[in-house]
């Protein structure tokens, strides 16, 4: 396998004056770059100094970002070059598809797509691309936030219409995928009202059923409980609304009583590990909100968490007890 | 709380299970072997000094090319780690560090980039300024006069005017900032900008108009903060990305910096953060016994040593904001277990989790988290300022950390300069982990067998200011310098 030719040895680059990184100083913590990288960056500094924007600069910056996908200056300069020489942004996007898969965790890879998307304005294709990358990494933070940005920025009802199904597929694959739960909340509650979602009562009911069923299937899933809390708070519904639902989750398997199928209150699945600490916490919150004598019930539950069901967070439960008791004294 | 999967495995729970299997206290391979400091739950300071020394002085292998656009960070992570370990560089190396940083100041845009000739960027700017805070303080005994002021401190060479112009040029109408001229918007950039503005006394109303509201818009229904927020009309925001430890730290620190500088009046109609949900989320991020009480960065993800700071450090920020004392709502003793048993790497440096390799980023944020945990466990001590001396203070009235079954260990080196002079072989000796005993660095040695009265000192590290992740000494010296009236107006 042959080594790539250094820019220093290429006739077509001989007009460029390469610039060393450190001219007079030997820094602390020097990086021992390979020659290929040193050469490429010396030439990059060279063309950046003259402000050259040309096809060969696209070649050089592509080389650089392959060697170091986090080289944000090279990305930035590449973008400016694309603009200056009137490049085809869609071709650039296709090139980026390859890089994105290999370097999913770099900010720059995704931000560059965003800049291109602002020019190309074809978000539907992007949503498809993003969906494919989730197969590789279902929780990639850059990808999820980029998806949310596309949806919110273009705000096209066509785009939104497929989103709930999309997120449900991912939740079906992994009910514990918190990124997907967040995306669900974003889609349903934090992005205005989309076509078909105007009946907010119906939407709310649908979401409540969905989260309850998720909790029923896998009770010890913080994502689902956080979603339930968020759903209720966002819609100014008191936690007490779901007390009958959550109560069985605060008991052990032996103490379960539900015989009848109650669609509004799906019980814990047969395989569930009970009692569920998140349910006990939730019940305590309900009692705390009621105040008065009920605060003592809350206190009992917090004690049980601190002593038995969630010992690692003992100090937090003690804090809740203090605050609770303080509240009823005033 | 033991992780349980309700007999319904998914990729998350499977990954969690295999991680937990590796989060065990390390032990000697045979009963006859004496436990190492790490195996005894002790911070092996010398080992980590060796790791840091090697990187600073011998340099970094080619794979660090991926960090070529983060050179100020490499310096900040190592030098702040040294500060936490109560070690400082000798003057020669301090000067070298300062010169290196100044070479990364962008002559056209102002601010600092990831390396010489790189574009100005808010994140390396923070790392550069903080590094200068560590290595560039003027000698307090010398008097500033117009001729020699430049030689007293490299701080005079920070171009504040250009920096302020840069900050304004990066601002968006919605109150946010992008990190570089065509870069992404996220709360890390906002935090970095505000921290620098505070250190260099450049916070103006003009600079921060609208920023608080944008930061608030980043809070999610879970209580933590997302990377950014997009306005969706009528003063409402949609957070981009789920609640995340790194972004939460940046958002909360940004909020506190803004609140301290421009306090909102109690009658103000300005909306506040949802502190109840934030507190809950922070506490929920700490892992259980089977995870050695480390912190994760997001719900249903794996614990990672760097969140010891990003999440663990948030409690000190809340304290600063609410001026509360004594109410520790999290498990600092537990966090110490994670850092000492899981994050310490047997060859030096600290890491995400076993079996990963250590790196300077994880070394710093584990140590910063450990410092937070040490000070949180000691409500009797006053602010971390009191421990900026070389001797550990602490009345160990707290119960011993579960980790420590080991002999008492006063594992502090006194301020040991890492010398750059070629005649001295101090550093390469102590830096080599293959040598049994470093030649001249005072080594931590276990003393007499432990009795109930001779518990190890609870605080062994310097305290770190949660707003900057600098020691109070360094942060205050810089802020004081730039407050003096003789300083050039930056506008």
From TrEMBL, chain A:
> What UniProt keywords are attached to this protein's entry?
Magnesium, Prenyltransferase, Repeat, Transferase
Q: Which PROSITE patterns match?
A: PFTA
Q: What cofactor is needed?
A: Mg(2+)
Q: Which GO terms describe its cellular component?
A: CAAX-protein geranylgeranyltransferase complex; protein farnesyltransferase complex
Classification via Gene3D superfamilies: Protein prenylyltransferase (1.25.40.120)
- Entry GO MF terms: CAAX-protein geranylgeranyltransferase activity; protein farnesyltransferase activity
The EC code for this enzyme is: 2.5.1.58, 2.5.1.59
SUPFAM superfamilies given for it?
A: Protein prenylyltransferase (SSF48439)
Per the record, the domain of life is Eukaryota
The similarity annotation says: Belongs to the protein prenyltransferase subunit alpha family.
For this entry, the protein name equals Protein farnesyltransferase/geranylgeranyltransferase type-1 subunit alpha
């Amino acid at each position: 396998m042959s080594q790539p030719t250094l820019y220093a040895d290429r006739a077509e680059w001989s007009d460029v004056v390469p610039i060393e990184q450190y001219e007079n100083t030997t820094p602390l913590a020097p990086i021992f770059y390979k020659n290929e990288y040193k050469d490429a960056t010396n030439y990059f500094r060279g063309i950046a100094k003259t402000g050259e924007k040309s096809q060969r600069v696209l070649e050089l910056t592509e080389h650089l970002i392959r060697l170091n996908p986090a080289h944000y200056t090279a990305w930035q300069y590449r973008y400016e070059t694309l603009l200056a020489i009137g490049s085809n942004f869609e071709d650039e996007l296709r090139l980026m598809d390859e890089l994105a898969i290999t370097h999913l965790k770099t900010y720059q890879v995704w931000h560059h797509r965003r800049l291109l998307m602002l020019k190309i304005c074809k978000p539907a294709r992007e949503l498809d691309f993003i969906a494919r990358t989730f197969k590789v990494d279902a929780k990639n933070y850059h990808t999820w936030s980029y998806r949310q940005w596309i949806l919110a920025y273009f705000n096209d009802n066509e785009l939104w219409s497929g989103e709930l199904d999309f997120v449900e597929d991912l939740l079906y694959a992994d009910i514990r995928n918190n990124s997907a739960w967040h995306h669900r909340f974003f889609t349903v509650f934090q992005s205005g009202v989309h076509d078909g979602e105007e009946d907010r009562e119906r939407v709310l009911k649908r979401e409540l059923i969905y989260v309850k069923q998720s909790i029923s299937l896998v009770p010890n899933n913080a994502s689902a409980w956080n979603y339930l809390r968020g759903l209720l708070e966002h819609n100014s519904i008191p936690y007490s609304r779901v007390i009958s639902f959550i109560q069985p989750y605060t008991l052990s398997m032996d103490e379960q009583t539900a015989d009848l199928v109650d669609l509004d209150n799906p019980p814990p699945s047969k395989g569930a590990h009970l009692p569920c600490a998140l349910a006990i916490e939730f019940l305590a919150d309900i009692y705390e909100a009621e105040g008065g004598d009920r605060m003592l019930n809350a206190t009992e539950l917090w004690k049980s968490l601190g002593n038995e069901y969630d010992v690692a967070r003992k100090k937090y439960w003690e804090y809740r007890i203090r605050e609770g008791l303080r509240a009823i004294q005033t | 709380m033991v992780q349980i999967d309700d007999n319904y495995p998914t990729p998350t729970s499977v990954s969690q299970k295999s991680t937990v299997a590796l989060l065990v206290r390390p032990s000697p391979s045979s009963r006859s072997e004496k436990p190492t400091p790490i195996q005894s739950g002790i911070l092996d300071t010398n080992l980590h000094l060796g790791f840091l020394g090697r990187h600073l002085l011998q340099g970094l292998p080619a794979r660090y090319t991926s960090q070529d656009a983060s050179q100020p960070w490499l310096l900040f992570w190592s030098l702040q780690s040294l500060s936490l370990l109560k070690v400082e560089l000798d003057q020669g190396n301090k000067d070298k560090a300062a010169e290196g940083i100044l070479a990364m100041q962008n002559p056209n845009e102002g601010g600092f980039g990831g390396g010489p000739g790189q574009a100005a960027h808010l994140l390396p700017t923070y790392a550069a300024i903080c590094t200068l805070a560590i290595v560039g303080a003027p000698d307090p005994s010398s008097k500033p006069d117009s001729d020699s002021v430049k030689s007293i401190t490299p701080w005079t060479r920070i171009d504040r005017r250009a920096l302020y112009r840069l900050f304004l040029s990066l601002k968006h109408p919605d109150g946010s900032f992008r990190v570089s001229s065509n870069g992404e918007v996220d709360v890390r950039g906002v935090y970095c900008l505000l921290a620098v503005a505070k250190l260099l006394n450049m916070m103006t109303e003009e600079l921060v108009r609208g920023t608080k509201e944008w930061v608030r818009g980043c809070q999610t229904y879970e209580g933590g903060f997302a990377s950014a927020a997009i306005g969706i009309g009528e003063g409402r925001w949609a957070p981009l990305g789920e609640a995340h430890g790194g972004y939460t730290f940046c958002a909360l620190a940004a909020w506190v910096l803004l609140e301290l500088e421009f306090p909102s009046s109690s009658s103000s109609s300005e909306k506040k953060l949802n502190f109840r949900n934030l507190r809950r989320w922070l506490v929920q991020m700490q892992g259980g016994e089977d995870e050695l009480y480390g912190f994760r960065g997001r719900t249903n993800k794996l614990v990672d040593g760097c969140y010891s700071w990003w999440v663990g450090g948030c409690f000190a920020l809340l304290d600063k904001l609410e001026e509360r004392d004594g109410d520790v709502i999290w498990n600092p003793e537990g966090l110490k277990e994670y850092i000492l048993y899981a994050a310490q790497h047997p060859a030096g440096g600290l890491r995400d989790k076993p079996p990963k390799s250590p790196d300077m980023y994880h070394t710093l944020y584990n140590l910063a988290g450990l410092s937070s945990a040490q000070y949180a466990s000691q409500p009797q001590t006053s602010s971390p300022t009191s421990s900026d001396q070389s001797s550990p203070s602490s009345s160990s009235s707290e119960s011993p950390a579960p980790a420590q079954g080991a002999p008492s260990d006063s594992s502090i080196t006194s301020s040991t300069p890492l010398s750059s002079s070629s005649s001295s072989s101090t550093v390469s000796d102590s830096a080599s982990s293959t040598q049994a005993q470093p030649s001249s660095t005072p080594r931590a040695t276990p003393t007499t067998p432990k009795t109930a009265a001779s518990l190890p000192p609870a605080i062994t590290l310097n305290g770190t200011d949660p707003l900057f992740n600098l020691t109070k000494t360094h942060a205050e010296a810089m802020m004081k310098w730039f407050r003096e009236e003789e300083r050039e107006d930056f506008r």
